[in-house]
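TASK: fixed-backbone design
INPUT:
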């Protein structure tokens, strides 16, 4: 049996960063990854990076006045470009840990023997590792809803397999109107597919500010994306080289033919097979690893980071979880999930939609007296320079303190702009600081001079 100071299960953002940090601090560290195509985790291999490579390629394709066949050729090139990028990043990520003096990378599936021992099933043998501290960073996997015929269809994809689909689908049906559903709808529409998004709920982007959700829906519809809300899927079956999706819409039953059906109905924590019971690691009612604010599980010495914890599923949350764990193991123990500040996010549509903080409704529900400010993207000089005048910017301000409670930016480059607002919120700045600051010109950020001019 090999002994380590730390064993990390899963090569995700938190895990790999922690492995590098612990090894550099002199701790003997093992990092276990079950899939040798996943060094670096979901983000660089099958998540953020490949999907954003597609966003860029698709935006280029959308500008061309070409036939579907020509677009399909461009799409094939985009898949190859994406694969080259992810292969290079995977290799770089592997060596960043494996080449460290104090770190070993194991390619095998890990499970707990007890709270100090982990079994690793390697290709040719099974080994056991011992450590005083063990870290779970196993990520999440797509939830597949129980729809009749889904598992028998040869046209059904999850985001991961869709990103490697070489043929551009003429017709794409997306089940689920969340982050992945929206981003893939925007991407494939720009590549040239006919896209239909099917959502069970009746409200489009239910957690988002209504003004912005309406603006996003209008933009997608204008671009030709069909949105079917309050729609139940009865079955999926293959017929004549296509999938036929039978649905029950508020207007009655409907059959939609598709070359590809993407399942984007949420991702669930990867806890199966870890034998967590043996280690005394408990789960939440939603089957995520239960942790306290320091990411300590119910078993002393065992921590969890990233999607497996069941909170917000973003790469930068997994990275921040690493910061919290580092603060526990090597630092002042001060950082927790409760003091990491406002968490922004961006959905990479065309234009992207970005948010931080409260919506108007949430602010009112929480009893704030608020001021609202809005600005159409078309009023921003840089949006006109870019030829991207679609969109709306909105901010929710605490009328008593003048601090920003929330910002909702649906406009070009909003994914960059939102980080500035997060900083202002964390620093408890008055909105007037953003209003009166000098910005370079012409930029999208200078829109804050006008947005906050109330
Ligand atoms: C299509 C898509 C697009 C996304 N876009 C964005 C985006 O733009 N921005 C953003 O911030 N987030 C995005 N996300 C979410 C983001 O990718 C995840 O939140 C993030 O990668 C989670 O990282 P993690 O550290 O929790 O684990 P992961 O990166 O998922 O890593 C977990 C690793 O553990 C391994 N593993 C699991 N079980 C075991 C075991 N028993 N033994 C050994 N190894 C095991 C897995 O193979 C995997 O490599 C996207 C996700 C998807 C699917
Ligand atoms: N830009 C980003 O940061 C980014 C991009 C992609 C994914 N992600 C992460 O990945 C996670 C997973 O994304 P996701 O889109 O799969 O999940 P999600 O939770 O965002 O959305 C799932 C959607 O599927 C719908 N749904 C569920 N079951 C359904 C059914 N049977 N029929 C029709 N609709 C159904 C839900 O109502 C919801 O709209 C997200 O939580 C997000 O954190 C982030």
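OUTPUT:
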């Amino acid at each position: 049996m090999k002994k380590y100071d730390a064993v990390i299960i899963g090569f995700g953002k938190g895990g790999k960063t922690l492995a590098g940090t612990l090894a550099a601090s002199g701790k003997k560290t093992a990092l276990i990854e079950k899939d040798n195509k996943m060094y670096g985790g979901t983000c660089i291999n099958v998540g953020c990076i490949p999907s954003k490579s597609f966003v860029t390629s698709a935006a280029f394709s959308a500008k061309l006045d070409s036939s579907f066949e020509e677009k399909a050729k461009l799409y094939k090139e985009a898949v190859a470009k994406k694969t080259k990028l992810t292969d290079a990043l995977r290799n770089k990520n592997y060596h960043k840990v494996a080449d460290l003096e104090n770190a070993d990378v194991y390619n095998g599936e890990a499970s707990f023997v007890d709270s100090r021992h982990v079994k690793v099933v390697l290709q040719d043998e099974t080994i056991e590792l011992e450590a005083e501290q063990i870290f779970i960073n196993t990520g999440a996997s797509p939830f597949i809803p129980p729809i009749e015929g889904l598992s028998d269809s040869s046209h059904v994809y999850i985001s991961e397999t869709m990103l490697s689909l070489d043929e551009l689908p003429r017709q794409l049906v997306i089940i689920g109107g969340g982050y992945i559903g929206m981003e893939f709808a925007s991407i494939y529409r720009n590549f040239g597919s006919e896209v239909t998004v099917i959502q069970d709920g009746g409200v489009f982007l239910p957690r988002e500010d209504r003004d912005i959700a309406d603006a996003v829906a209008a933009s997608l519809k204008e671009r030709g994306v069909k949105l079917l809300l309050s729609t139940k899927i009865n079955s999926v079956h293959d017929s004549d080289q296509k999938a036929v999706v039978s649905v029950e819409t508020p207007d009655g039953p409907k059959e939609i033919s598709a070359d590809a059906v993407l399942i984007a109905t949420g991702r669930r924590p990867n806890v199966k097979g870890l034998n967590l019971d043996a280690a005394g690691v408990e789960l939440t009612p939603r089957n995520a690893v239960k942790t306290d604010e320091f990411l300590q599980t119910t078993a002393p010495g065992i921590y969890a980071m990233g999607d497996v914890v069941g909170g917000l599923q973003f790469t930068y949350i997994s990275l921040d979880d690493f910061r919290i764990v580092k603060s526990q193991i090597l630092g002042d123990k001060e950082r927790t999930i409760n003091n990491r500040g406002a968490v922004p996010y961006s959905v990479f549509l065309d234009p992207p939609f970005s948010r931080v903080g409260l919506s108007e409704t949430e602010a009112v529900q929480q009893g704030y007296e608020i001021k609202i400010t809005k600005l159409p993207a078309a009023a921003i000089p840089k949006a006109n320079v870019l030829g991207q005048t679609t969109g709306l910017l909105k901010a929710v301000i605490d009328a008593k303190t003048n601090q920003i409670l929330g910002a909702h930016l649906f406009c070009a480059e909003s994914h960059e702009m939102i980080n500035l607002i997060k900083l202002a919120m964390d620093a408890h700045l008055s909105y007037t600081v953003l209003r009166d600051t000098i910005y370079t010109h012409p930029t999208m950020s200078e829109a804050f001079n006008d947005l906050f001019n109330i």
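COMMENT: The two ends are 67 Å apart (CA to CA).
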